[in-house]
Design a protein that fits this description.
By secondary structure, this protein is of the alpha+beta class. It has helices at 15-20, 35-42, 91-101, 132-156; strands at residues 10-13, 21-31, 46-47, 52-56, 59-63, 66-67, 85-88, 106-116, 119-129. The protein has one domain: Small protein B (Small Protein B, Chain: A), CATH 2.40.280.10. A 7-stranded antiparallel β-sheet has the order 1-8-9-2-7-5-4. The N and C termini lie far apart (47 Å).
């Protein structure tokens, strides 16, 4: 029998999103997947870095999220690792997001994939792009924190 995944564990994170965007609002949504994709996600064979969310005909889809098929995938299917996947939200939530995305500078970005009560969920964010100077500030803050941690670590020895 297959091992059940822990509830509320992360499968994959999009660390690049926090560097490139300011997050206004976070939303958790379901994801329509095929069987081989779920098996690959259990093994952690996914990449969210190049993923983004688009609106088509009043529905949300995630594009560019790569789920790499396992070597032991079934022979009667041909897995497509960059298949467009539908996101599941209530109609009212989708309408609110569409209104906000139509504003200048806003986009929807996938942040992570995680398990919740035995189901795979995707956390997306309504985000606004960072300017170049904001990215430099982020790098400067990160390096400053790293130096402080190094100093504290060397002092504890």
């Amino acid at each position: 029998m297959a091992k059940k995944p822990d509830t509320n564990t992360r499968i994959a994170d999009n660390k690049k999103a926090a560097f490139n965007y300011f997050f206004e609002e976070r939303i958790e949504c379901g994801l329509v997947l095929e069987g081989w994709e779920v098996k690959s996600l259990r093994e952690g064979k996914v990449q969210l870095t190049d993923g983004y969310v688009v609106v088509r005909n009043g529905e949300l889809f995630i594009i560019g999220c790569q789920i790499h098929p396992l070597n032991s995938a079934s022979t009667h299917i041909s897995p497509d690792k960059v298949r467009t996947k539908k996101l599941l939200l209530h109609k009212e939530q989708i309408k609110k997001l569409i209104v906000k995305v139509e504003q200048k500078g806003y986009t929807l970005v996938p942040l992570n994939l995680h398990w919740k009560a035995g189901k795979i969920k995707c956390e997306i964010a309504l985000a606004k792009g960072k300017a170049e100077h904001d990215k430099r500030d982020t790098i400067k803050d990160r390096e400053g924190k790293r130096e402080v941690e190094r100093a504290m670590k060397s002092r504890q020895r």
